[in-house]
Amino acid sequence: MTRIESYGNKPTRDGFGLGLVELGEKDERIVVIGADVSGSVKTSYFQDRFPERFISVGVAEQNATTVAVGLALSGKVPFFSSYSAFAAFRNADQIRVSICYNEANVKIGGGHSGLTVGPDGATHQSLEEVAFLRTLPNMTLICPADYEQAKKATIAIGEMVGPAYLRFGRPSVPMFTKPEDEFIIGKADLLREGSDVSIVANGIMVWEALKAAEALKEKHNINAEVINCHTIKPIDEHALVNSAKKCGAMVTAEEHQVHGGLSGAVAEVLVKNYPIPMEFVGVKDTFGGSGEPFELTELFGLTWKEIYASALLAIDRKNNGSSVIRKVKDVAVYTDGM
Amino acid sequence: MSLEINFSTKIFDNKVREHNEYDEIALTIRQDIIKSLVLAKSGHPGGPLGITDVMSVLFFGGIMKYDSSSPDWSGRDRFVLSAGHMAPVLYSTLARAGYFPTEELKSLRKYGSRLQGHPGLDMNLPGIETSSGSLGQGVSIAVGMAMSDWIIDKNDKKVFCITGDGELQEGACWEAAMAAGSHKLSNFCWIVDNNDCQIDGRVKDIMSVYPIKEKFESFNFDVIEIDGHDYNQIKEAFDKFEENYKNKGLPTCIVAKTYMGKGVSFMNDEYKWHGNPPNEEQAEIALSELH
Q: Are the beta carbons of B144 and A101 separated by less than 8 Å?
């Protein structure tokens, strides 16, 4: 197994911003709606390059969303971007009725997602939007793993027809997907093959999953499979069921509530097709809080260690059936001395 | 049903008219509204009857550019009924403009019908520009359309939109107003159906939206208040909008003072008729009055 290396750090939001510029060069139907945070979510790159195709509506996310629909119904390909806390919830009704029911060709860039917004605190740390967005008919929902993938995903949603939401974050995170790697909406990436346990992750948790897989191999000679499930909807059922059959135990990992997000989407597929023991790594039914981004991921249990511990537990349940007593609440029991 | 319901096949041209010519059009639309609602056994008669005169001038008075035989014609002006519950007046107007057979008005609110309870773009009914029904959203979509024409494409197309007055209680309306005023969308005409009625009572009692004129003026609209049942005033208001458009002036807001249920004596100015359909006897009386 070739170890996947990182080659530096960049924010996924930069991938979004530069992807938009690349799209804009190719397609003059691309229009961007600004809602006052253009510098933060990097739509400012597009604004600088194509000022005539950038429309500002101020801090008014509901209006931004429906204005985008009006533009889409006029043949444009509008992107609206703000923080996920306001780009998925404040405008939830607009997304449901005006974007999804209309099947309007609107793209939303949900930036500053998850805990890693950091010091801004709980109000700005969206941890629930995946659960909402993936229930909407006609919606495509993507959470890329790094800068390069965010850029490719941005271009991909701009080239597809129909509603799409891209979930990305604020801080610099490791880059490990290569410019030459393929990105296909709805096709999960098998990053590491394994046979003992399958780790399905997206966003910043993919890198953590890779680290956990290395540790499992080193410490226990466990072969963990790692799947980057960047597209949450439509989800890659085929890849998930195949991996479940091969490994017999699975862990999901996401920077989101453990309820209703990637965990729920994957569980729905497996329960119906091939039920196996599953463990979920994510935020456990609580709000976030102020702190440094990677201090928070440690404190809220969003690191390779929780994935590692959950993988051991899932394997334990696979081998010992339902008799395994889930006494292992504390990650330290499994990660002792690491 | 003992009451026999039939829809005539009559359609009307879109042209400059003498004001007395609108009587027949408005009467036909009001009959359609009552007929389609008594068949549907649910729906909203009050608002549609009240805005019928405005719709008659807008669609049949040479104000809007459209071609019902080519609904997707790229040069068309667009109309958005933000108050989606007033769908019966839109459906009748579109049918009478020749977008689809008038016979189809029988299918209002039935399963599989293109005439959904609130307009649904997914049903591909010719002439429908967007789904609407969640109040405050349609007008913002219309603003987006106007931006596409005015800011991006710089073409000569216009966008017309009708909201209710109760609808103005939705905060989203004011986000849309701010954007239209701020971007000086001269090609945008916002018509407020000011009947002062909403489901629970009088708008002024439930949550006053007054003064409407001053509010829109402060949002940088040119506001024209009219009697929404006076064809002369309606036409003049649209002429003023045309003037604003040509002068690249402010967006236009027409506050049309109307009566809910206009044309049917027992519905006139009665908020109870916001969302209740006539039963057979009531429909029979209503249709006898609409002659």
A: no
Reply yes or no on whether A255 is catalytic. Answer: no
Tally of CB atoms within 10 A around B23: 12
pLDDT per residue over B185-195, tens digit each? 999 999 999 99
Task: Show the domains of chain A with their CATH numbers.
Answer: 9-174 (3.40.50.970), 189-335 (3.40.50.920)
Q: Which residues contact B193 (CB under 8 A, 6 or more apart)?
A: B47, B50, B51, B54, B83, B86, B162, B163, B164, B165, B228, B256, B258
Which candidate in A61, A208, A225, A306 is catalytic? A61
| Rounded percentage of chain B residues whose pLDDT exceeds 90 | 99
The bridge status of strand B201-202 relative to strand B197-198 is: antiparallel
Sign of CA dihedral A169, A171, A176, A180: positive
Q: Which residue of A has its CA nearest to B182?
A: A57
pTM: 0.96
- Report the distance separating Cα A48 and Cα B273, nearest Å: 53
| Residue that is written with structure tokens 């959950």 in the block | A310
Nearest Cα of chain A lies from the Cα of B147 at a distance, in angstroms, of: 7
Supply φ then ψ for residue B167, to 5 degrees: -60, -25
Contact B65, B187 (CB under 8 A): no
Give the fold, CATH level 3, of B25-289.
Answer: Rossmann fold (3.40.50)
B205-231 residue pLDDT tens: 999 999 999 999 999 999 999 999 999
Of residues A304, A106, A308, the one with CA closest to residue A219: A308
Tokens of B253: 């807001």
ipTM for the predicted complex: 0.96
Residue listed under structure tokens 């271009």: A155
CB contact under 8 A, A57 and B175: yes
